[in-house]
């Protein structure tokens, strides 16, 4: 499992993005929930920054 996460962990944000896109579709074109759309968009962006190395551990608010 560690080898899998070390090899493919930087691409985890794509999984989150696949969940975010339908929620944004529901929000804009149907009667969707704003909180869900914002939360999933924020998670996708956070995982993108962590996976690409643009958010370092010293700047990460969730790492102590």
Q: Would you mind describing this structure in some detail?
A:
This protein has three helices and no strands. The protein has 64 residues and is mostly helical.
Main sheet, how many strands, which sense, barrel? none
Structural class: mainly alpha
Distance between the termini: 24 Å
What letter string, H or E per element, gives the SSE order?
HHH
The radius of gyration is 14 Å
β-strand amount: under 5%
Query: What is the overall shape?
Result: globular
Number of strands: 0
Low-confidence stretches: none
Helix fraction? 55-70%
Individual helix count: 3
The average pLDDT value, as a whole number, equals: 87
Short précis:
The chain has 64 residues and is mostly helical. It has helices at residues 2-8, 12-29, 34-52. The mean pLDDT is 87.
